[in-house]
Amino acid sequence: MKLSSYSKAIFAIISVALLVIQIYPLIWVFISSFKAPTDFSGNNPLSLPSRFSFENYLNVWNKGNLGTYFSNSLIVAVTTIVLVILFSAMAAFVIEKMRFKWSKTVLFLFLCGIMIPIQVVLIPLFIIYNKTGIINTLTSLILPQVGFALPISIYLFVSFYKYISNEIMEAAVMDGCGIYQVFWRMIFPLSRNTIVTVVIMNLIFIWNEFIFANTFIHDMKSRTIPVGLMDYIGQYGLTDWGATFAAISITTIPTMLVYFIFNKSVISGMTAGATKG
Amino acid sequence: MDNILRNHKAVLVFLLPAMLVYVFTVLSPILWSIYFSFFSWDGVSDMVYIGFDNYAKILGGDKTFWKAFSNNLIYVFIIVAMQVFLGLLVAILLTSITKGRELFKTLYFAPAIITSVAIAQLFQNIYSFEPVGILNYCLEQIGLGDWSKPWLSDLEWALTAVSIPEGWRFIGLYMIILYTALLSIPSDIEEAARIDGASSWNLFRSIKMPLIKPVLMVSIIMATTGALKGFDIPYLLTNGGPGRVTELLPTYMYKTAFSSLNFGYGSAMAVFIVIESLIAVAFIRRMMDSKET
Fold first, then answer.
1. What local confidence, expressed as pLDDT, does residue B198 receive?
2. Chain A residues whose beta carbon lies within 8 Å of the beta carbon of residue B267
3. What domains sit in chain A, N to C, each tagged with a CATH number?
4. Which residue from A17, B65, B91, B177 has the highest number of Cβ atoms inside 10 Å of its Cβ?
């Protein structure tokens, strides 16, 4: 937009103010994690820590089970993502490249999943898990997260495969490749960028997932990070804010790192749902 | 070539893993929910078939359900307004600044990648009354100390207070979607309008708005369906309280199923939530289409 320098300055000020509202609360959590416990009962929540204290971090480290939660979250995230990538890349290959009568129907069936609210599957899965003994295991989290990640991932792979010409596949077949080799040696390695987008997008969703973890896991040993963040709420609902903020800071650092390194992929992945409209 | 691509065994090998997980965790639970909704069941004793009684209860007189429903509408309205309108506003502002757009985008998007549990805990602090939280402290500092209150337990304000965090965290997402749409408008259209003497406001209203309308519609649909599913933050901040002031359909459904162990009635509500989302999308599409003519 072409604007006078006066209105430009106003726009810049408003932009910065909006940015502060968006980002300051996150910085505040980080700063507050260094406050001493007495600082939290003070009258000024915006004050800086009276002294720079690592007490909260030590508390979190000694008392909590953050290590267990971290490894649980990691196991769930890695397993889910590997399965999502394999399953959706293969399914999309059938839908887009192979001569298969029902590919349109199958794609439609998968795309319906984008619209389905997670809540509708909670009761049936809870009952089935209880009957089969999957409840309280990490598998109970991995399965539905793979299921709900498939629609968007398949959509992304299908849109990428459209750009792969059939001629290069034909050339590979001439050279004696079978269907499995065409997929594994050629199509799958070619989709590197799509794989990165799907990985990053799902990594963030899975790392932050709360409803499944809160419903299916009651055992401390299988807890993941989001539910574990509520460990510092003591009796009578009093929260140890210092410890909570320290735990939030520690567990958000991996996501933040991934985000700042791959922010283009993160953003394009998370807005992927909109581009198909 | 054709033979290789028509290999039925390969189709099965490639498609089956995805299909199995998807059917087991997404499609079949929907059918199970519909099935359970015709029963009265606490998960332990025998299931009792009660026909449409659960639905009759919803339509008939469950006051809490309709309270949750109307709360949900307000909740959705606040969130869509924040995400789409503030998102659009920030997107427009962003097209006007010349330096540091990428950094601005990256930072503005940051709250979207943080877990809802952390967001809920952050806002618990912002709204806190005793010890004084950020919001009440700021009000005091600018001389509006009279307005300070325990936001999350205030009967009038609790619902708004619970809606804002969910709206806030995804403003960046819609800002980027709308910003991309604004950027894709060819600059010669803008220049031609300038030469014809259009003001910035006219340019925006008569040229840019119609051009980004499809994207705007998708954003509204995304924000609406997202908000209709809203669960984490209301559940964590107030869990429906005080009273039923912040009860939403998903939180009510969750409590009915997993606290009161009324799986049949909970399933009926879950089915209602699916239907409601589908109707909302159809409704928005129709509304936007009829405006066009």
1. 81
2. 123-124
3. 5-57 (no CATH), 63-275 (1.10.3720.10)
4. B177
